[in-house]
Amino acid sequence: MAKRKSHGTESSHSGKKQKTAHVHETPTSEEVYTGRQLRQLLAFEQDLRKARHGLQSFKNLLDSIANGEDKNSEKQQILLDFLESVKPKEEDDTVPVYLPDIIETWSMAAQLNNENVMSAVVVVLALLLKIVSGNVDLASYGLGICRTLLQKQQQELLAKNLSADNGKDFIISPTLRLLREAVTLDGGALAAPIFRARNNTFKSLARNIGLRYLGEGIEDPKRPSVRTNAIRFLLSSLRLLHVEAKRDLLSQKEIVAALMRHIRKDPPLLIHEILDTLRTSVILDKKLPKDIKIRILNAHSLIRIADLYGYSEEPVEDENDGKSGRPSVEESAHAFLLAACTDADAGIRRPEHGCYPEGVDPNATPRGVNDDQSMDFGIDSIPWMSKFEDDVPVRNTLIAEFIQTLRPWSNTKQNELLVTIFEASPELIAHYFCHKKSFMFDPKLSATWIGYAALLYNAIQLPIPSWFGHTKGYARVPPPTSIVLGNIIPLPMTLKAITRCFSIKSKLASFYAIRLLTLALQKLGRALEMYREASSSPNSIWEEAARRLVDEFYQRIPDIKDVIKCYTALDQDDLLQRQAASRLLLLYYEVIPQLALRARFDVSPMLLSVIKRVQVSEESDEDAVMSLLELESLCTAAKYSPSMRWFARASDMPHSPFTTLLRLSVEKTSGMSNDNLNTILHWVANEHQLVESRPNSPGLSTLIAALKKLGIIDAAIWTFLDNCAERCARTPVKYLEMIEEQLGKANLPEDDDDTIAYPLMMTIAEQIPFLISSSLSKDVLKQLTKLLSEYLGYSLAAGVSKPFLNATRELFAAGFGDHKFGAKLRISDKRKFTPEIQEDSHEENIVVVNGGNNRFVDGADGDATYQINAQDLEQKLSVPVVTSKDSSLSRWSSKTPEELVEEGYATSLIGLLSSEHASIRKEALTNVVKIAAKIKESAYDNSQQAWLLLMELAESARSAIADGPLPSVIVAFACKALDVLMNPLHCLYEKVNLFLTSGPVWSLDKIPLMQTILQDGPTDDGAFYSEISWLLGFLLESLRTPADIALFHRRKVFERLFALTCNPFMGPGLRTQVLRIVYRATSIEGGSDTLITRFGAVSWLLAQRDAATDPTERGIYQALIRRLWETCDQKRIEAWSQGGVGRLVK
Predict the structure, then answer these.
(1) Per the CB 3.0–4.6 Å rule, which of 236, 413, 579, 706 could disulfide with 790?
(2) Half-sphere exposure of 157 (CA within 13 A, CB side)
(3) Which of 440-444, 558-562, 1101-1105 has the lowest mean pLDDT?
């Protein structure tokens, strides 16, 4: 068919509609002076150029108001006049339409497809609503405009704008801003109606969220992209909509996917808004069902948020409004993921069963498996016990999928997140390492390998869940061995990898391997203890599971010979690694002795080497402590070594290991913690019968005390003692027979438990003649005489039979012969001696000897109670009162704010507010205000909280310090609260901040936070006892004067403390703190009277004594009752109780 010819000219109309390109023309405008003028400018015009002229003039007016240029409120008055003039009249039959001319102009522009006017209308309306929302008087106009927008015709106009082509940002963005202002107006009054019209108001929202900024550099905050405006509209809706509406909104997968798809490319401020809104309005919204939360917190979303780790933020010039103080994007993402993955109530974590995998019933046992009877089939009869070596089914599959995408070895925040997830959901530990096949622990000395090692260290360090994850006590069946083993020593820690860490020449690799094995052995010890707790008989299924766990653990760790080889290859100067390796050797002997003893390893050479180094070392205090810790570990390991020769002298050592340790305990470690060394010495002495192993025997303590009394001891005496110890250990029967002979001469029964004697004394008596014959100097003989006299005196004070000691003294004197020093031997007068007997941890009874009397005191119920005298009670319960010196008034001036708060200068100054001198109190108050100002002006992290606390303290004290000292409770609280504010992770950080913001002045006759801690419950789960411990320490520091006793009386503090101890799960440390408060009260005038007459302290102590099972604890309660009686007004209390309290004490 031929083409039709055109009969017109070139300029004639072709008969086809021409497509015209959109042209942006700069709109004209004029200054607006009156509301009437504005109404005329906005009147409906067929000519859209004039309409645009009016809209631009209106926009200029609104811009000047929004930017704060309207200083005299003239333009705001123009706006108010205009809104009042166009306000529709209320008629029953018609729906009011606000701004009808603008709405009609918008409708016409949409019909003619005039995009410039379509954009100008929504720009003006969005700006108008923004101004109206900030003025309460204009709220009614704003609501009317929004209701007009929700009418059917305007909804279609909104939908047309929202669905404009992708490149029409100038139409879409202002429309989204308009909708956001409408949603947030008047606290979200119209959020629900706007959502009900979502077919139009939320038109193309998913598409618009995907229209991100494509320019170069960072998105300008003043000209946000379509994605930014769309996201802010969505977030505002989530904040203000009710639960059902949020549920419908989050159910739209396209919106959720679009929100998370490009989040890493969003500007930092927008990311903060997204994460903060999702956290507060979705995660922490407990009314929102968990299945809806999972819609937005799915694995895809979590992975996208995890991509924000390592987000690089570039400085933005326009950040002068305080935004620079916000956390980084990485920190915000980290906090969001922590809340989402670890909070069982608010997040997506589901309750789980710890070491019991999903689908397993731990209380269902096959026939024949019964804890109360002998097993017929054993642990192999449980079908699922060996099923989970390659895969572990879990309940939290979503989190399990997410954590597989993390890279914890390359980012410390991801490491922390993963470890926190492991702690909250222990079931994921074994599952994670089962599926993380790329996790290789072969040492390569790279940053990645160090990250691997750090993750393994943190994972092993996590505690085993209570009852292995079972909800109520231990289950009938133990958890699968492979899962428990995976929690103790993760799969990447293979025997090959650990052995290679020891074999390669790298201190770092071997150190990591040593520390990991140490943690694994400690965790295994705790697991075996839990198995024993769950077991009801030696043949139970739990015992069999424990044996299997140990057997499989053997297959995963290197032999002790490899550890010994690594230890011996370490440099002598590498003290840190040597201490860690010696600790590992000790754990081999303590936790898995069967494997350790297979090696038949002699600890003596290594022990002697360390002893020699400690003897001759001139190290710093820190290095000396590390050497001592290494020595203590080797000594404890030597206890378990059957080939250890305690009394054999090496060729290069002057004395045996036992005597060398004894000398170190007396001389080298003076002033340092040598409890473990004393424990070893006591054990060796008992094991080799240097002393008698009786329950009330003071053991080697008397000899140690006598040696310490002498100070510097001649080498000849040490050699003499070494010879005596070696002879006594070699032939103990000989010296036991000598004891029997001496007891017979003293007419003492041999089988009496109260008859204490020392075989070592007999050895010394036998060897004295040989020592005297070696021509010693007079100074050495004089020192020996004094040593023996002190030894006899301390033995008498510790409860050794006096007739036996008299007979022993005669033997000592006979050994001296006719020497005049023999006549000087005497039993020194030691009125009191409390030996520090170090018992092994497995011993059931801990013996404390007081004076010469080590008798049991029968309690009210006939149980044994140890007698504790006043001095011992003071040592256990007395806490010195800390006072501030007057020099604190001037010492603070040259310190930095960090030093003022963290090094105690501020607390010292606060303490002076309770000074007895008014001038000091007033000067201290002035300085507190100066410190507060100095801290506020600094860049100190916690400057605002510290300033607020100090200023509230100053205001509270201002009217009181002229009349007398500030109450101790206020001073103590200020000091303790300042310590809390330094640590944002403190369990009371939130409560202290809430208290500070509750009012500017503190009540001086109330005890801050006591009610909150005791009745409101802990802020963080598991922090109850930590908060109680802080409160008890605070109350102890608050109790100093009779006025404080009166305040405690009015506030019923002792009544609350006595009730607190009724908690059966309260630990002994917290109970001791309560007793310290009671003891402090008895040292204050009138305190004992108040405790007895007002709070029934005697009855409470009697009840606590009768309920206690430990004899020492019972003795403390009995001694405290006696302390109350001795410090009270006895005549008054006798009359008040009709003699009852006195009879109880006697």
Answers:
(1) 706
(2) 29
(3) 440-444
Contact between residue 230 and residue 211 where contact means Cβ atoms under 8 Å apart: yes
The candidate with the shortest Cα–Cα distance to 98, out of 89, 88, 113, is 88
Q: Where are the alpha helices (DSSP H) in 536-663?
A: 541-554, 560-568, 575-591, 593-598, 604-616, 621-640, 657-663
Q: Is there a contact between 753 and 688 (Cβ–Cβ < 8 Å)?
A: no
What confidence category does residue 6 fall into, taking pLDDT thresholds of 50, 70 and 90? Answer: very low
Structure-token match 């993380």, residue found: 436
Tokens read off for 940: 């100190």
- Smallest CA-to-CA distance from 433 within 493, 498, 360, 496 is with 493
pLDDT (0 to 100) of residue 537: 64
Rounded Cα distance between 525 and 532, Å, is: 11
- pLDDT (0 to 100) of residue 317: 47
CA-CA distance, 517 to 523, in Å (whole number)?
A: 10
Reading the block at residue 266, the tokens are 């969003």
Other CB atoms closer than 10 Å to residue 742's CB: what's the count?
23
Please report, for residues 491, 795, 807, 808, 1066, the alpha-carbon distance to residue 813 in angstroms, rounded to integers and kept in the order given: 69, 17, 10, 9, 56
Residue 218: pLDDT band by 50, 70, 90 thresholds?
confident
Distance CA(956)–CA(966), nearest Å, equals 9
**Residue at 801: amino acid letter:** S
Query: How many of the other CB atoms lie within 10 Å of CB of 1097?
Result: 23
CA distances from 385 to 355, 380, 581, 974 (A): 12, 7, 35, 56
Which one-letter amino acid corresponds to residue 270? L
**DSSP secondary structure, 61-95, as one string:** HHHHHHTT--TTSHHHHHHHHHHHHSPPP--SSS-
312: pLDDT confidence band, cut at 50, 70 and 90? confident
Residues 6+ apart with CB under 8 A from 242: 192
The residue among 467, 464, 479 whose CA lies nearest residue 429 is: 464
Q: Is 947 left (phi over 0), alpha (psi -120 to 50) or beta?
A: alpha
Q: How confident is the model at residue 177 (pLDDT cuts 50, 70, 90)?
A: very high
CA angle 502, 507, 512 (to 5 degrees): 65
The token duo for 821 is 């020093």
The amino acid at 97: V
DSSP classification of residue 853: B
pLDDT tens for 433-463 read 988 877 778 888 788 888 889 999 999 999 9
pTM: 0.64
Residue 256 in contact with residue 296, Cβ under 8 Å? yes
- CA–CA dist 663, 710 (Å, integer): 12
Alpha helices in 775-838 (DSSP H): 778-797, 802-816, 820-823
The residue whose two tokens read 């990645």 is: 448
**b/e string for 319-332 if b means 16 or more Cβ within 10 A?**
eeeeeeeeeebbeb
* Total count of residues recorded for the chain: 1146
Q: Is residue 507 within 8 Å of residue 577, measured between CB atoms?
A: yes
Tell me the β-bridge partners of 853: 850
Give the residue ranges of DSSP H helices in 916-1051.
918-936, 943-958, 968-981, 989-997, 1010-1015, 1024-1038, 1042-1050
911 confidence band (pLDDT: 50, 70, 90): confident
- Listed in order, strand segments (DSSP E) in 16-131 are none
Percent of the chain whose pLDDT exceeds 70 = 87
What pLDDT band is residue 370 in, cutting at 50, 70 and 90?
Answer: very low
Are the CB atoms for 797 and 815 separated by under 8 Å? no
Which of 660, 634, 738, 657 minimizes the C-alpha distance to 692? 738
* Average model confidence (pLDDT) across the chain: 81
Distances (CA, A) of 230 to 179, 180, 220, 225, 750: 9, 9, 16, 9, 95
Given a contact cutoff of 8 angstroms between Cβ atoms, the answer to whether 109 and 47 are in contact is: no
| Local structure of residue 4 (DSSP, 8 states) | P
User: Which whole-number Å values give the CA distances from 312 to 8, 254, 266, 268, 416, in the listed order?
Assistant: 64, 28, 11, 9, 20
